[in-house]
Amino acid sequence: MPRPDGRAPDQLRPVVVTRDYLLHPEGSVLVEFGATKVICTASVDDKVPPFLKGQGLGWVTAEYAMLPRSTNTRTPRENRGPSGRSQEIQRLVGRALRAVVERAKMGERTVWVDCDVIQADGGTRTAAITGGFIAVADALGKAGVGAAVRDCVAAISVGIVAGGAVLDLNYIEDSGAAVDMNVVMTGAGEFVEVQGTAEQTPFDRARLDDLLGLASVLATLNPGKVRELGRLLGDLPIILLSLREIAGASLPPETGATYVENALIKARAAHRLTGHAALADDSGLEVDALGGAPGLHSARFGGPGFDDAGRVALLLERLRTVPREQRTARFRCVIALVDEAGRERTVEGVAEGAIATAPRGDGGFGYDPVFFYPPLGR
Predict the structure, then answer these.
(1) pTM of this prediction?
(2) Using CA atoms, how far apart are residues 228 and 147, in angstroms rounded to an integer?
(3) Cβ atoms < 10 Å from Cβ of 176
(4) Closest among 183, 179, 184 to 165, alpha carbons compared
(5) Which pLDDT score is estimated for 375?
(6) What pLDDT, in 10s, does the model give residues 185-207?
(7) CA 261, CA 278: separation in Å to the nearest integer?
């Protein structure tokens, strides 16, 4: 059965995120899922609730409200306090945001997240979570504790409408759905919360799997790449799965002669395996003093017995006598996308830098600890 707005079953509504939407809050976002529009602000308060005083921990909490005419008929203001529905939603938003914040790194601060629905067409709570996360990340960054955000979080609705599983329900679909579900996940593909309700007939495990399967698949087994790509996609209401979460999944050998060929090999394999849109990359470190090595073989530099630390040590040993000015290098990355219809797209990016003389930092993986990137000065 066609959807009211003509979308495919697994197609999101147009998503628009406008950051710094308001002048005064430390973080503010207007997030739009089609006709649903929510303003999310994050305000930093240099104190914590009494139950947390003296513990060195921060706190993130949320409030949620709908403007009286955000719906097709006027809803009275909640002057006597939030309704039961509003309380349930704001607790959900708070739980979702705290799941990806290391409160010990915040210091004794509270981030107040206010989610105000200015126009509702279904999915207001999922939009509030997605926009609220961006606002919190911006606010903590401005407060100098951006490192407290350890992952991203986003949410989306799915449901059974007219017998079929659909993604991102609008109001018409939501009001007539046999099953309505909200899914909250981190960028690493972990669940924070799954809220599923059978409005009419109970649903079985197969239906549940269908709903949770309305997701994009990240074609990698590398947990570092899962985290990084999850952060990059954090502004979008996408449920991100890695191949680690699919039983029996494996990647084919990277037999291509170029980064493009290898990225497509992985993306095509994941698309065939799942039927979903699949995103894959192939990247490498190219060191000029080594004739462009390790290049395509960066992940296998030194042979199968080497881990990240071993490959870094081998690289530094081979560059031991190379002067600083001759240690130029670059990361080259190609990302390949195979969408649900099998259409393929690729894009390449290059970051120029140099190889340091010793590892530094603790936030990267692979060759990150020895790659100096001038634009960031680190």
Answers:
(1) 0.61
(2) 14
(3) 15
(4) 179
(5) 86
(6) 887 778 899 998 998 789 888 88
(7) 15
